[in-house]
């Protein structure tokens, strides 16, 4: 595929500390009624990292990422992408990232090619560049055989792949993916893993949210563990998991309390 568009190239503000990280969250906070979904979260995602955000269902991962990318306004705090504030300069910030939300809604009465063309036109990508990138992405995602198939008729794996293609279309430097492998068949999952690996190897950064520990352990070099709206651990994968597996560390940090299973003693009777 061709290089990222000009507005995505070059160094961005980093201050005296050097180049800014791919993503920085400062005091991110969100309350829904009486529920604190995200509780003053601070997080730094290094450039060039494959970053895993893990946590049980309801931990606040989706809410945190939605605020991070500009889909949900925080009650407090900031989100910066390569030093660009997501809320004060949303156009520039969103040009630097591609987003694949969980349960992404998209125009379904279009083919994959038509969808990519439509998204590219909305982003103002030149026609010749758009045509080339669309073909490249359809090739890489192995969706050429579905040339005449409408998105509404896509399988779950195909929908994930075309969603990732829309996130990559404008040449972002950061991908933010919320449960990208959920309900995806092994063949499609392998293709997605290869694409994301190549993206990071070429200098991109990826944030992947998941509650599947072996997947995160396989793909990611840096992780953060979230529970009840707070970060309970963050850092390089090897440091966070210690001598055990990531799943063992995760269960120790956020798992069921000792003795909880005693309430189910009747199952053994």
TrEMBL record:
Reply yes or no: does the keyword Chloroplast apply.
no
InterPro entries associated with the record? AAA+_ATPase, ABC_transporter-like_ATP-bd, ABC_Transporter_VariousFunc, P-loop_NTPase
Provide the residue span(s) of the region labelled Disordered.
1-20
In terms of Pfam families, this protein maps to: ABC_tran
According to the UniProt entry, which residue ranges have a biased composition of type Polar residues?
Answer: 1-10
Q: Which GO terms describe its molecular function?
A: ATP binding; ATP hydrolysis activity
The alphabetized UniProt keywords are: ATP-binding, Nucleotide-binding, Transport
ABC transporter domain segment(s): 23-253
Return the protein name. Answer: ABC transporter ATP-binding protein
Q: Which organism is it from?
A: Planotetraspora kaengkrachanensis
């Amino acid at each position: 595929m061709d290089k990222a568009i000009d507005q995505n190239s070059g160094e961005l503000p980093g201050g005296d500390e050097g180049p800014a990280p791919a993503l920085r969250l400062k005091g991110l906070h969100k309350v829904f009624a009486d529920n604190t979904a995200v509780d003053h979260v601070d997080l730094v995602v290094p450039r060039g990292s494959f970053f895993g955000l893990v946590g049980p269902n309801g931990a606040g991962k989706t809410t945190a990422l939605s605020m991070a990318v500009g889909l949900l306004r925080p009650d407090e705090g900031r989100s910066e992408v390569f030093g660009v504030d997501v809320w004060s300069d949303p156009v520039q910030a969103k040009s630097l990232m591609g987003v694949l939300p969980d349960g992404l809604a998209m125009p379904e009465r279009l083919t994959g090619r038509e969808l990519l063309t439509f998204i590219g036109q909305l982003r103002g990508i030149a026609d010749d560049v758009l045509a080339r990138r669309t073909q490249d992405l359809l090739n890489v995602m192995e969706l050429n055989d579905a040339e005449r198939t409408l998105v509404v008729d896509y399988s779950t794996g195909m929908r994930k792949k075309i969603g990732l293609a829309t996130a990559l279309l404008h040449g972002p430097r950061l991908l933010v993916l919320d449960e990208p492998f959920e309900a995806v068949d092994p063949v499609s999952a392998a293709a997605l893993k290869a694409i994301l690996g190549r993206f990071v190897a070429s200098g991109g950064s990826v944030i992947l949210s998941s509650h599947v520990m072996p997947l995160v352990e396989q793909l990611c070099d840096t992780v953060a563990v979230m529970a009840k709206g707070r970060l309970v651990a963050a850092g390089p994968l090897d440091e966070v998991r210690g001598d055990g597996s990531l799943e063992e560390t995760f269960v120790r940090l956020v798992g069921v309390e000792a003795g909880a299973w005693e309430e189910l003693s009747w199952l053994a009777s």
